[in-house]
Amino acid sequence: MLNTIYRLTAPRTIEPVVVSQDSTGKVIVRPTYLSICNADQRYYQGTRSKEVLDKKLPMALIHEGIGRVVSDNTGAFQPGDIVVMLPNAPTEQDEFIAENYLRSSRFCGSGFDGFMQESMILPPERAVLLPQDVNCEVAAFTELVSVATHAISRFDIIAHGRRERIGVWGDGNMGYIVSLLLHTRYPDAKIVVFGRNESKLHDFTFADETHLVDDVSGVELVDHAFECAGGEGSVAAIEQIIDRINPEGTVSLLGVSENNVPINTRMVLEKGLRLFGSSRSGREDFEATVQLYHEHPEVLDYLAALVCSVNEARQISDITAAFEADIRKPMGKTVIRWNM
Ligand SMILES: NC(=O)C1=CN([C@@H]2O[C@H](COP(=O)(O)OP(=O)(O)OC[C@H]3O[C@@H](n4cnc5c(N)ncnc54)[C@H](OP(=O)(O)O)[C@@H]3O)[C@@H](O)[C@H]2O)C=CC1
Ligand SMILES: O=C(CO)[C@H](O)[C@H](O)COP(=O)(O)O
Ligand SMILES: [Zn+2]
């Protein structure tokens, strides 16, 4: 079948291309609601290195999104079903390495075309059925929620059992979602959020404590920590985490940084800390996230507070307008109602 793909060909330049794609044994999904990730912005604005841009562009952006099934000759879905699309496509299985860490996996919007397409032609295992009455504007960023689900599931295996105070550094989207999911999963733990913006911290209504990072004297140490700042903010966040965590704590690193981050390894050694990184997610994380939506519908209500704007896209200028609006946003997620 013929499909139109909207590719970033150079920073801030999106162009359509019509390609012929084989849909045999695949599910055809019309993207309906997409959401912009910081990773998309790094390509859109051209803040990645020239080598990376030269290697990955032209490429359709966006790896957060949902859609409606048009047809499925595999029988897994019914036409009209609302599904979340999975950006990670593994090409092999490994007994020990999860699909999102296999170097052979293909990730939409990072080296391979993302969801900015007229139709997504997916193997049935790259889509998961959503509750059919789900708030689509919120479900659009289920991928980001699945990344938090993934990191917390790994934390659960790695961290020692005292989980009385869990610190989250970062008052943006990732910090909000990680804190919310930690609160839901460990209702007896105190969730302590550290951020840079009083206005954003006000939205963390489910957290037990919120603190501005430059006013932490007297704040009790945490047993474990999640770093959700990213960018240049990672440096100060990791430094403060190492300072404000109890011995033998576990530090979950989630923020992406363009530059290397210096780490106070002396104190990592002295405190016996465990640092581990998490990136992306796999099918089981999406399934667990959808299960969470079913079992804890209040999570979707809390996530709705993150929707900053919903932007209709009917033509390419609407897409670029959404990316530009995302750059200027005060907080939250920029959602695109996809009508291309
Ligand atoms: N591991 C993964 O698979 C994924 C990683 N990410 C990455 O996670 C990071 C966060 O994403 P997202 O939440 O969407 O981005 P946001 O920009 O929404 O949030 C980052 C927040 O951290 C705050 N911050 C900066 N420095 C510190 C600090 N020292 N301590 C505490 N908070 C600080 C920022 O404040 P201010 O704005 O004032 O600087 C901002 O509010 C990004 O690097 C993103 O690329 C995203 C998705 C998946
Ligand atoms: O956002 C993410 C997952 O949701 C990751 O940060 C993203 O996949 C990193 O990819 P890239 O190397 O292209 O920045
Ligand atoms: Zn992302």
UniProtKB/TrEMBL annotation:
Residues 211-293 form the Alcohol dehydrogenase-like C-terminal domain. The keyword Zinc applies. InterPro entries: ADH-like_C, ADH-like_N, GroES-like_sf, NAD(P)-bd_dom_sf, TarJ. Pfam families: ADH_N (PF08240), ADH_zinc_N (PF00107). It catalyses: D-ribitol 5-phosphate + NADP(+) = D-ribulose 5-phosphate + NADPH + H(+). Zn(2+) binds at C37, H63, E64, E143. The keyword Transcription regulation does not apply. Its EC number is 1.1.1.405. GO terms for molecular function: ribitol-5-phosphate 2-dehydrogenase [NAD(P)+] activity; zinc ion binding. Keywords: Metal-binding, NADP, Oxidoreductase, Zinc. Its cofactor is Zn(2+). Residues 25-131 form the Alcohol dehydrogenase-like N-terminal domain. Catalyzes the NADPH dependent reduction of D-ribulose 5-phosphate to D-ribitol 5-phosphate. Belongs to the zinc-containing alcohol dehydrogenase family. This is Ribulose-5-phosphate reductase. It comes from Adlercreutzia equolifaciens subsp. celatus DSM 18785.
